[in-house]
Amino acid sequence: MTTHxxxxxxxxxxxxxxxxxxxxxDADIFATGLVNSLFVMQLVLFVEGEFGMAVEDDDLEMENxxxxxxxxxxxxxxxxxxxxx
Length: 85
Known about the structure:
Structural class: mainly alpha
Distance between the termini: 14 Å
Radius of gyration: 13 Å
Order of helices and strands: HHHH
Number of helices: 4
Largest sheet: none
Shape: globular
Helix content: 55-70%
């Protein structure tokens, strides 16, 4: 099984919105107060486009998108599920 390092792409996407504000991989993106509901939609579209996967209704939980680590974990789970089918 090939492992993917998703975090550089996730960090690059987030940097567009956080500018000089540096986020730790486990930092809660939404706790910063720097994002809004439009950002959430853009984040979902980024995950779908960048990683070639559909974000299903069941995936639309805040904890799946709350940090770099959480987004990476979601992508890894979805890839693993796709491989095991």
